């Protein structure tokens, strides 16, 4: 059954629980790799952090940008600014200069860096969320369903309070398939597919997609299948929301829901 999302209901999108005046700052181009990294990694592997410079610690959301794992740039969605959050926009390397697995490892390094430094930016490490659009949503799911990438960086993926990808690929990403000479119209599920790693003990997951008739290459159906398989293995906290009338570029209608879900899942951690 399709879900019609009403975006202008009262969902408290002004902030995540803050009423006093808060001063926000943004720091840009923070490197999350060490000096032994390649010049390309030093150029790409940077992040921006928008954070409240006063007040109590607040939830943290990592935002991975889209672009098919071949392009794009780190970003902090304007809608998320000054909403009672620490928002981190993550940059990473691109195919074909590196393999998809290398990109996932970049995302893991960035995530580890943020978790280890969140308190410096008034971030609450018990309320960490991971999100992103399209390729960014794919990275969010790969990092949290396949725990080995974050474990290699000293992080337990189950520390996250929520996983909230926007229009993510849940089968093997088409750029990974391209590395294998497989056309993007040919679906594949292997170790580079979030679906391969379904597990009952993953943190709460909220899957957001555009209209199934307007989305890219079966993107809604991929997410619906992930939800179904998570349910089959016993995961009890998976939600799937479809934005009728919106295509793959469904970031804005999703952002108010992202805020709503961060608040809901944060409240569960109190």
TrEMBL record:
Coiled coil: none annotated. GO terms for molecular function: hydrolase activity. Pfam families: BD-FAE. Keywords: Hydrolase. The keyword Hydrolase applies. Residues 47-148 form the BD-FAE-like domain. This is Alpha/beta hydrolase.
């Amino acid at each position: 059954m399709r879900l019609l999302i009403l975006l202008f209901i009262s969902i408290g999108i002004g902030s995540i629980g803050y009423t006093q005046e808060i001063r926000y700052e943004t720091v840009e181009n923070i490197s999350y790799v060490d000096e032994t990294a390649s010049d390309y990694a030093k150029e790409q592997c940077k992040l921006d952090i928008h954070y409240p410079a006063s007040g109590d610690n607040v939830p943290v959301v990592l935002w991975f940008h889209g672009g098919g794992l071949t392009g794009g740039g780190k970003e902090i969605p304007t809608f998320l600014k000054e909403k009672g959050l620490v928002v981190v926009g993550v940059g990473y390397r691109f195919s074909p200069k590196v393999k998809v697995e290398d990109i996932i490892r970049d995302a893991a390094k960035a995530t580890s860096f943020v978790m280890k430094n969140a308190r410096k930016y008034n971030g609450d490490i018990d309320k960490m969320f991971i999100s992103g659009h399209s390729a960014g949503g794919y990275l969010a799911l790969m990092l949290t369903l396949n725990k080995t990438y974050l474990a290699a960086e000293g992080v337990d993926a189950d520390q996250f309070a929520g996983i909230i990808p926007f229009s993510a690929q849940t089968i093997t990403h088409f750029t990974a398939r391209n590395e294998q000479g497989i056309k993007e119209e040919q679906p594949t599920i292997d170790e580079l597919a979030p679906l391969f790693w379904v597990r009952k003990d993953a943190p709460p997951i909220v899957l957001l997609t555009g209209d199934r008739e307007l989305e890219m290459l079966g993107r809604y159906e991929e997410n619906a299948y992930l939800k179904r398989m998570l349910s089959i293995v016993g995961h009890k906290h998976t939600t799937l929301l479809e934005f009728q009338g919106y295509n793959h570029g469904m970031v804005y209608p999703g952002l108010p829901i992202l805020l709503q879900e961060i608040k809901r899942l944060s409240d569960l951690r109190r």
